[in-house]
Amino acid sequence: MSPEPRFDPARLDTAFALLEASSIGAVAAAVVTANGAVRQLSRGVAHLETGEPLSAQHAFDLASLTKVLVTLPEVLSLIEDGRLSINDRLGLHLPDAGWMQEGAGLGSVTVGQLLTHSAGLPAWMPLYTHPAPRADLIARVLQVSLEAAPGTAVKYSDLGFILLGEVVERLRGTGLEALARRRGWVHFRPQGPAVATERCPWRGRILQGEVHDENASALGGVSGHAGAFGTLEDVVRAAQAWLTDAVSPAMRALMTRPWVSEASGAPRGLGWMLGHPTCSGGELSSPQAFGHTGFTGTSLWVEPTRGYATVLLTNRVHPTRHGGDEIIHLRRRFANAIHAAYRGPA
C-alpha cells in the first residue's frame, strides 16, 4: 500500500470549485485515500422539476461502473480461486454460447477477451425493444454474431459484461444482486432516495430510483454491465478497497497490465481503462492509473502508486442525454486539478 499522500489545500479548493460551477443538476465527488475521503462535496438538486435537494443519502445510478464495482471483482475472485481462467472459452461455462454459429463463434471467445473488450462483439443490441422473460433475452445475447475475429480489434461492449455476469452467477450459484450485497460496496434497486436521470421515451417518465440503462431494465434491473446504484459514501468505500485489498498484489498486476490498446492508443487492462494522455482521468494521470466511467455521468479513477482515487458522480443525463458534452471536459479538468494538487507522500 502506498504512503498517505499530501495535497495542496488551495489547489484542492480550485478543483472542487470546478464542480460548484458546473451546470449539471446533481454532483457528488471525493478525493479518497486508503483512510477514506480527504475532501468531498455534494451539491445541487436530485430532481430539477421538484427541486428535491441532494443529500448524502441519495444514490446515483452508476451505469457502467457496475462493470468494475460488481462484475469485475467477482470475476477476479473466481480467477484467484482457480474456478475460472482468463483463457477459458465462454462456451466452457455457457454451453449455449454461439452453439448454432459456424467457425470461431461466440463460444470460442475467452474470458480475457470479454474483460478487455476484444472479443469481437457488437457494442450492444436493443434487448428492450422486444420485451421477454430474462432467460429469453439472455438466450438472444448468447447467439449474437461477432463483428470481428476474437482478439483482432477492441470495441467497448456491454454484451461482453452481460455474459460475464451470467458466468459469475452460474459459477457462484448466486445472483449478482446477492453478490453485490455480500461485497457491501454498491447495490441494485435502491431502497432509499435516488437521484433522477432521464425522461425516458421508452418508459414515458423521468426515471428516479430505477435503472437508466434500457437493457438493464429489460433484464429486471440487474445485469453485469449496468444497474448498480451507490451513494458517494458507497463509491468512496469501493475506491478505498481498490486502493488497498480488493484483490491480491499478483491479481492487481495482472489486472493493470496493458493487454490491448484502443484506436487512440489508450491501453486497457482487465475491465479497466489505464492511464493515458487521452483518458478521462486526465493527461496528468500516471501510467499506473486505472479507471472507468458510466454513461449517466459517473467515474472512478484510482492512482495506486500515488495512493489516492478520485470519485465523480453526476446525473448529467437529467432530464435528457442529448446536447451536453460538459461531463467529458469536467471529468478531465477535475482529475487534472486533483493531480496538480498532489504533493507526494506524507
Automatic annotation (TrEMBL):
Q: Under which name does UniProt file this protein?
A: CubicO group peptidase (Beta-lactamase class C family)
Pfam families on file: Beta-lactamase
Keyword list, A-Z:
Hydrolase
Domain Beta-lactamase-related residue range list: 20-323
Coiled coil feature spans:
none
| InterPro entries cross-referenced by the UniProt entry | Beta-lactam-related, Beta-lactam/transpept-like, Diverse_Enzym_Activities
GO MF entry, a single one: hydrolase activity
Organism expressing this protein natively: Deinobacterium chartae
